[in-house]
Amino acid sequence: MQGKGFEPYQGKTYPLDEVEYRSKSFLEFMEKRRTVRDFSDQPVPQSIIRNIIMTASSAPSGAHKQPWVFCAISNTELKSVIRKAAEVEEYQNYHGRMSDEWLDELKQFNTDWNKPFIDIAPWVIVIFRKAYDFENGEKKKNYYVQESVGIATGFLLSAIHQAGLVALTHTPSPMNFLGRILERPENEKPYLLIPVGYPLEQAQVPTLERKKEDEVIIWY
Ligand SMILES: Cc1cc2nc3c(=O)[nH]c(=O)nc-3n(C[C@H](O)[C@H](O)[C@H](O)COP(=O)(O)O)c2cc1C
Questions:
Q1: 115 lines ligand 1 (CB under 6 A)
Q2: Residues 142, 131: contact at Cβ < 8 Å?
Q3: How far from 45 is each of 8, 123, 127, 153, CA to CA, in Å?
Q4: In principle, which of 36, 70, 77, 197 could form an S-S bond with 166, CB 3.0–4.6 Å?
């Protein structure tokens, strides 16, 4: 396929001491990101959600296919329909579909089949991955879809944190109900459901320890 040619790279570069400082301060900032499950119902303007989603959509993707769609829902009735459908699936997950080992792992998070945050958070973003696209009515394959959408989700979560809001990465599986409720076409498969908003003032998060450097980095 013929591209659009080339242009000068416009990203900023810095001398090494500044690179050192910037990398450290970003690490310290990102280490404070937490998954929050207690949301405030304080409204968040659409313009902010737009900026966050467009940040996600700036992520790299296989052959630049950007194989994603972000449904941003603030409509109260629609959120309530989604919550009810998610709870139907999650009830079954917590009552037989998840293994005892899995349920045991989840105890530390104090989660159950109730999903009030879908109603309470001012926005719910449902990410869809596009296994293929349509160009002039023809099926066009996308490449490395899971990897690309995973990276875009990482951008999304970082943008939410950078804005000073919180998110919950949620997987009310199986998630096919999301495609039906949001009337998405056959080529779009639900990937994650992410409530976004301000945290409740008294929000609590589970105490977690993250892996140490020597467990996650192997130097050669
Ligand atoms: C793919 C994925 C699915 C997740 N699904 C759920 C979920 O359904 N419900 C939930 O409460 N948390 C869910 N989480 C959040 C994790 O429990 C959380 O990221 C993890 O405990 C680490 O905590 P932290 O995000 O605060 O660092 C999910 C996270 C990921 C990455």
A1: no
A2: yes
A3: 35, 9, 19, 20
A4: 36
Cα angle value 196/197/199 (rounded, 5°):
120
Tens of pLDDT along 160-174?
Answer: 999 999 999 999 999
pLDDT of residue 28: 98
Q: Is 102 in the pocket of ligand 1 (CB under 6 A)?
A: no
Question: Does residue 152 sit within a domain?
Answer: yes
Cα Rg of the chain, angstroms: 19
Give the pLDDT of residue 115: 97
Q: Domain count of the chain? A: 1
Structure tokens at 77: 């009735």
CATH of the domain at 90: 3.40.109.10
- Look at residue 7 and tell me if it is in a domain: no
Q: Counting Cβ atoms within 10 Å, is residue 165 exposed (0-12), middle (13-18) or buried (19+)?
A: buried
Smallest CA separation from ligand 1 atom 26, residue: 34
Q: Tell me how far the alpha carbon of residue 187 lies from the centroid of ligand 1, in angstroms.
A: 26
Tell me which residue of 162, 91, 88, 86 sits closest to 126, measured CA to CA.
Answer: 86
Ligand 1 mean position to 37 CA, how many Å?
10
Range of the domain at 140: 37-199
In DSSP terms, 72 is beta-bridged to 125
Residue 4 lies in a domain: no
Cα separation, 195 vs 157, whole angstroms:
11
pLDDT for 143 equals 94
State residue 2's pLDDT score. 81
